[in-house]
Fold this protein.
Amino acid sequence: MTVQYENLIFSNSRWGTGWLSGSPPNPVGFPDVTNQQPQNPATPQTPPDKPGVSEFDDHRRPLLRAVKFGSIALIVITLISLAVWGGLRDLPGIWGVLIGAALGGGFVLLTALSVLITSNTDAATTGAIVLGSWLLKIVVLIAVMAIIRNMEFYDTMALFVTVVLALIVVLAVEVWGVITARVTYVG
């Protein structure tokens, strides 16, 4: 069966802007792709400073995002807590917020930072440094809490609320930063 197309003209129709010669219009309404250049989807987009290496090939990218977003979240939580507790409890509320943000947010951020610093080492070294930093943070936490236990310059409720908020929010934002990072799985 032969179909003659010589007398057909399609102008401003669902098939495109027009057709006078060449191949017939797409009968099912798909977009015209005849003038597009072929693209190779396997070719990675490379940043200009590192030719041949994609930004998605950096195995540290999820950790960098976790530290970046966690730091931003800690700053936001600290500022909001300073405004609330400074207004409610004045200077003791401010001191409670600053100590709580340093303890709660610092604890979580230093863990991600220690993993990032040791990301180019073997698993045993990374594990040892992460475990050592965790033990050091526990010792510092106990020491700080023992030192300020009987002092009255800070508000204990502001300290508690800020520690809990900082721990929950910074950890959640770090997890979100890691799981939404786009990286290559096969090199």
In short: Residues 1-19 have pLDDT under 50 and may be disordered.
